[in-house]
Amino acid sequence: MRLSVLDLAPVSSDRTPAEALQASTELARAAEELGYHRYWVAEHHGMPGIASSAPAVLIAHLAAATSTLRLGSGGVMLPNHAPLVIAEQFATLEALHPGRIDLGLGRAPGTDQITARALRRGADADDFPQEVAELRGYLAGTGRVKAVPANGASPEIWLLGSSGFSARLAGLLGLPFAFAHHFSGDNTLPALQLYRDSFRPSEVLTEPYAMVTAAVICADTAEEATRLAAPMRLAMLNLRRGTPGLLPTPEEALAYPYTGQENAAIDAFTWSHVVGDPDTVRDGLADLVRRTAADELMIATNVGEPKARLRSHELVASVRPE
Length: 322
Fold this sequence. Notes:
Blueprint: E1 2-7, H1 17-34, E2 38-41, H2 55-65, E3 70-77, H3 83-96, E4 101-106, H4 113-119, H5 128-140, E5 156-161, H6 164-173, E6 177-179, H7 188-198, E7 210-218, H8 222-240, H9 250-255, H10 260-270, E8 274-276, H11 278-292, E9 296-300, H12 306-318
Parallel strand pairs: 1-2, 1-9, 2-3, 3-4, 4-5, 5-6, 6-7, 7-8, 7-9
Helix pairs in contact: 1-2, 1-12, 3-5, 6-7, 8-10
Family: To bacterial alkanal monooxygenase alpha and beta chains.
InterPro entries: Bact_Lucif_Oxidored, CmoO-like, Luciferase-like_dom, Luciferase-like_sf
Protein name: LLM class flavin-dependent oxidoreductase
């Protein structure tokens, strides 16, 4: 089973964005040594606790700091950008690091509507299929407008989704599909089934290839894993309130006076997360693979303590499913 990493470049309240990005660089190097297959960064805007607002820039830095690890976007939110610009950025990355670049595409803005309008006025997520086709045309060099330095060189294109829309589109286009199980667990199995049922062989794939992204926090003890998961729970509550901020420290999160209703809301959102010691995580990931028949797992570990986040990835690599 291939294991990969999704990195949100978390910025905790006791660290700076520069420190968070340095931690991501160190984690990418470690992931390469641990045998992880690919390392993706996610595009978010207007969220102080996430430093990956410019995926192409961060990918270039991480690719220069590693040598064999695949680097990519999980994803670029295409409604925020002109497809030509994304084609130019990722063709440049592919030219600099041939055979190592992935371009994961999503149709959500990755932010609030005000920020989305500031990024690209008039964009519509319903135009996603047409924009994917336009982008692929630029990379293939088939349009009237030439993307430079594309010239037919293309990164590996993925479609990302948290519902059935992109699942079906990925199947119809014969592209690999990554599903966001880490925040849309209720939709995972229906979306994967729709992807496989819709799949048409293409020049890219002869059969479906599905990756499932899981929220995982692993520590040497169950108690430590629970402590490390506390900030993510409070950050999720703040996001749902419309007040995203820096990722709390474990101490800040554990001291927060949750109401019963707040705890229930968080539990409903995080039920799919795998948190615990190595045995618990091994069993949780094996069960996820069994239920989803995933071809690849991507691990999202939203922990602000760099050493603890690295230790989690070390432990997950040691208990990877067969």
